[in-house]
Amino acid sequence: MGEEINDNPSGSGPADNTVAEGNGQTVEAGVQYYTLEEIRLHNMSTDTWLIIHDKVYDLTCFLEEHPGGEEVLIEQAGSDATESFEDVGHSTDAREMLMQYYVGELHMDDRSEQKPNEGNDAKPGESSSWTTWLILAIVATVVGIVYRFYVFEHKSS
Ligand code: HEM
């Protein structure tokens, strides 16, 4: 079953309700973590779990209520449905509904690599290379103007 990180039973350690994991990550205490392997077992209409944004939801009771139909949820059962969930463009209401079905978090080891700039299409370093080109263009223009001015001055004198 899921791995529970208990609430600091010894009384020592950090007092801010967080514990450090062996992999250097700090995670909230008392949160239930599930591995992908465990989540995959909940892949049927009588037991339907989904991962959305690294959070795990038990949607078994919601299947019949889902305005988009139960099939789409069952198809994705036991797996990561983040992309399909986002592709549909679910409303804020739909996002708030998710909370009722929350059962825990995807285990840190099963999360995909860090997603820097999530929700932002710019790649790291892209904006700095863009500014470099802009500065080069400005410098080239200024040099061009100064040169033309210099040549013009020499011709007229
Ligand atoms: C996992 C939790 C989910 C919840 C709580 C949820 C909730 C909702 C709600 C409330 C709506 C009505 C429209 C809205 O308010 O956005 C909706 C529509 C819809 N959902 Fe979901 N949904 C979930 C997952 C998914 C997934 C994983 C898929 C796709 C594979 C999906 C596909 C759809 C579709 C296609 C509609 C559109 C129905 C229409 O416009 O006719 N939903 N969902």
Automatic annotation (TrEMBL):
Q: What name appears for this protein in its UniProt entry?
A: Cytochrome b5 heme-binding domain-containing protein
Question: Where is this chain's protein located in or outside the cell?
Answer: Membrane
User: Which residues are in the Cytochrome b5 heme-binding domain?
Assistant: 31-107
- Per the similarity annotation, which family is this? Belongs to the cytochrome b5 family.
Q: Transmembrane helix: present as a keyword of the record?
A: yes
What InterPro entries does the annotation carry?
Answer: Cyt_B5-like_heme/steroid-bd (IPR001199), Cyt_B5-like_heme/steroid_sf (IPR036400), Cyt_B5_heme-BS (IPR018506), Cytochrome_b5 (IPR050668)
Any one Gene Ontology molecular-function term assigned to this protein's record: metal ion binding
Instruction: Kindly list the GO CC terms recorded for this protein.
Output: membrane
PROSITE patterns in alphabetical order: CYTOCHROME_B5_1, CYTOCHROME_B5_2
Q: Where is this region: Disordered?
A: 1-22
TM spans (from-to)? 130-151
Give the keywords, sorted. Answer: Electron transport, Heme, Iron, Membrane, Metal-binding, Transmembrane, Transmembrane helix, Transport
Q: Which SUPFAM superfamilies match?
A: Cytochrome b5-like heme/steroid binding domain
Main site of residence?
membrane
